[in-house]
Amino acid sequence: MSKKSEKQSKVFISFGDVAGGFKPVSAAAGLPSSMSTPLPLYGGSDSELVILSKKLMKKDGVTKIKAIQDLVGVLNTKSEATLAEFLVFFVYAFSKLYLEDHRVIREKLCSILLTVVRVERRLLAPHMKTLIGPWWMLTGDPVGDVAVTSYESFCAAIPPKKRQLVLVYLSSSILTEAVKNIHLRPETLCDLSLTPIDEAEERLERVMVSTLASIEKFVTTLSAEQNLQLARGTADVGVESFGETVMTYKDLFTQAMWSKCLESKFVLVRRAAYQLIATLALHTPEVLTTRDISNKSSIDFFKLFLSCLLVETSVLNLHVLLASFVTVTTSIPAFFDIASVTEDVVPVLLHLLQPNAPFALEYVLPIAGSLPPEQVALLEPASADPTAALKQSQSQQSMCGFLQQLFDFAEQKAAEGGVQSLRSEVVAGKVKSGRRNAAEKMNVHKMLQQQSQRAECVVLGIQTDVCAVELATLLLLRRSTSFSSSISSLKENQISDNVEAVVSQLVQSIIITVQSATVALRGETTKGNLFQKAVEASVSDVAISPGSAQVKETARAALGAIGRSLLQLHRAALMEMHIS
């Protein structure tokens, strides 16, 4: 053996160490039936470890933290034989303590593993099947230091070229732990006679988020072929030859699991579920599209996923959900074959256009843009003759009704502008530069006192207008009978004059809004005013000719310019609020 290979054999646990040479322990073996069941104490001969092990299992958090910190410091001085005795106790203690609320305890648990790896890595090999589930769950811990330490200790134990093989071999243990965590309840996770219900629910939320994030990391670590094997149940996992239950993706990603996560009252759990769905769509879409005729699980999943768009209350979650939706529809062309556009998707779009959704277009755009060409083609009759929709099928009527509502919304925004009252003042010439009388100065002073609120209103108003322009441009570029042609090859006569007019009106409306913002927010602006400079740059950037012959190119350029201008305005507004 070369020096290099000899050194490497001492640094890592090899795949052979994990997969052979010992009788595997079931992922569930030795785990307590209840979270409150006492775990075995260290029964070795080292008196120092006896004391620290007892302290580690105390209920008092401070005692646990002190014990685990001391263990990190003394384990590297112990012999291999002593460490081997200690690990028999520690792998069981780990399975309970990794659920602890205190971040230091969870982080130091991984530090102990890292210490063992550095002393003698192969001591962990006989315990990997019992240990890997809780160990991997911590790689998704919401606390960054815990997640990093957990993954660092895993990487220190397994050589880079063998990590995927080891994870697949141990996948049943990992998935078993994930299934157990997903279906935990506050009363099974904590003793409610000792723990307040709100603390128990906080712990449950963290454990579920950690579990979902760790499974997302698991999926992204494996290759596409390995994920496919786990989805189909054909992976070479390390339990088949011993008659144990094989856990696959089908056992984890069930309708019950998605219902619990997507309908959870915990905001962070729902967000983690949305992110996991996007990752699955990219790396192993078969998990989401495999159709079980007996229970129509994939159909139910897609309906549940779409219903989240109707009930999600967190703005940040809605952004993540929309990004996930776009990823799913882009990565899974069969999505619209499984979920009905007219029955499942259009109601969501119409819901997002309701008056109580001020930023509806931000969410409507990605959904409308992801519709399949044959569905968008249904919009064509309404462009030439809106009454033609009444002569079409119910499916076409639904789509044409949605189109009409979009255009009504866009035209309304074009007529109103971003800030209606300010726009009318500018147009009427009521706000003028130059000298002001005392009353006007008092009004300006009051306006400046409300600067932060006014700035936010203007920025949000411009955002709404920008969304309307993007929407109209989306329809401008997509609404054509020749969907097989690329956007750049569309002819002028294939583009609706109505859409062109709406785009031009909306861009001009934004220019007026920006000009209004200058006068209303700052009054007599100075040459060095940051907001003024941003406004001047924005106005010159987005100005286009309404009668331009190259509407497509102009619209694209205008959208890019508007995006940059909006960013400038937002930054300048925030800076002005802090400076004043």
TrEMBL record:
Signal peptide: none
Pathway noted in the entry: Protein modification; protein ubiquitination
Residues annotated as domain E3 ubiquitin-protein ligase listerin N-terminal: 47-354
Main enzyme class: transferase
GO BP annotation list: protein ubiquitination; rescue of stalled ribosome; ribosome-associated ubiquitin-dependent protein catabolic process
Record's catalysed reaction(s): S-ubiquitinyl-[E2 ubiquitin-conjugating enzyme]-L-cysteine + [acceptor protein]-L-lysine = [E2 ubiquitin-conjugating enzyme]-L-cysteine + N(6)-ubiquitinyl-[acceptor protein]-L-lysine
InterPro entries recorded: ARM-type_fold, LTN1/Rkr1, Ltn1_N
Keywords on record: Metal-binding, Transferase, Ubl conjugation pathway, Zinc, Zinc-finger
GO cellular component: cytosol; RQC complex
GO molecular function, one term: ubiquitin protein ligase activity
EC numbers, comma separated: 2.3.2.27
Annotated PANTHER family: E3 UBIQUITIN-PROTEIN LIGASE LISTERIN (PTHR12389:SF0), ZINC FINGER PROTEIN 294 (PTHR12389)
Subunit description: Component of the ribosome quality control complex (RQC).
UniProt function note: E3 ubiquitin-protein ligase. Component of the ribosome quality control complex (RQC), a ribosome-associated complex that mediates ubiquitination and extraction of incompletely synthesized nascent chains for proteasomal degradation.
Family the UniProt entry places it in: Belongs to the LTN1 family.
Name of the protein: E3 ubiquitin-protein ligase listerin
